[in-house]
Amino acid sequence: MNKSSPAYLALFLAITAGIAGGALYSANALTAPVIKANAEKAEKASLLEMYPDASIDDFVVVDAEDIIADHPSVQGVYKYGDDIVIFKNAVSGYDGGTVFLVAINATDDTIDSFKAISNGDTKGIGSKITENAFAESLAGKQASGELDTISGATLTSTPVVEAINECATIAPTVE
Amino acid sequence: MNRMQNFKNGLIKDNPVFGLYLGLCSTLAITTSINNAIGMGVAVIFVLILSNMIISAIRKLVPDEIRIPVYIVIIATLVKIIQMLIQAYAPALDSSLGVFIPLIVVNCIILGRAEAFASKNGVLDSALDGVGMGLGYLLAVLSMSVIRQLLSTGVLSMTNPFNEAQVLFSLRLIPEDFTISMFSSPLGAFMTFACLAAGLTAYKLHVQKKEAAAKAAANSQEAAK
Fold this sequence. Notes:
The complex is a heterodimer. Chain A is α+β, with helices and mostly antiparallel strands.
């Protein structure tokens, strides 16, 4: 076959892509289980920070596809014990937004615990959301009621509070 | 001798970043900490050596018309494999380098060396060229990240990329009140880059002048004879 005929070129590219695909397939088969285990471990590690006395197996991952489809800020849902539902949320803020966990007691609608995982907003202003004072101001409050935002950092804290209110409406429906 | 020269060129004179101005996008973005720089540098070296070797090995088979797509497929495959390995075994590195690992595919250093060197030279030479250029890149990102991390946080530190919690060393050189947070932003990246690139150019001019002077002296000696 002529080396510059279109058929030869197409065949050559196809073979190259085939070999590349094979290499990728085997690399994926090798690493996919490790990556999945890593991701689960990383997620549960932040849950452990909320409940230091718990063990990693106490948290049950809830199949939350429907919830995530209806509520775009929700990233994941976990159950801890019979009553507590933990939501992982990502909301936009002033710049980078906030990723946080909130644990809501589904029976009496109180906030059991709050933990900000990361905040990409202005350091010293929006980042106050990651400080203990904010988490303490939420603990024990009614999750569906009015919650205090951080003065001076409303662009960061309002979406967080709104997301908590939203989670409060979902919590009783999680099984 | 010639091989050694090739290798040394990549490190300093033709340093891909400060000499040839290649791969700047990732350089400016990831040089905020030493950890990132080393992770990125090692990933680039790995891809560069392997892609240079593979491309050089098949250079006589690849039809000229489709060489670029073939190179891209090879490079993209290697990068994807590296990305999966990093995700699996150094997840902390993966989260801090983020999108810049997949972007190694379009890093001009790699395609540039494939086109300019590996497609015209033997496997061993190409591998050496990859080592030289890769180390040049590592040296560049490392020097930038040391300056940026030191000025923006006042601390030189490194953690084990395979275990985030293990701190290898941490050294506070500048008190917290005197750090310049600007150096962690893109502005600081450009300034650091400009100073280092200017430094390398000054060094190259200095060497050139010295060589020219030595040549002139030799010429005049010859004329005197």
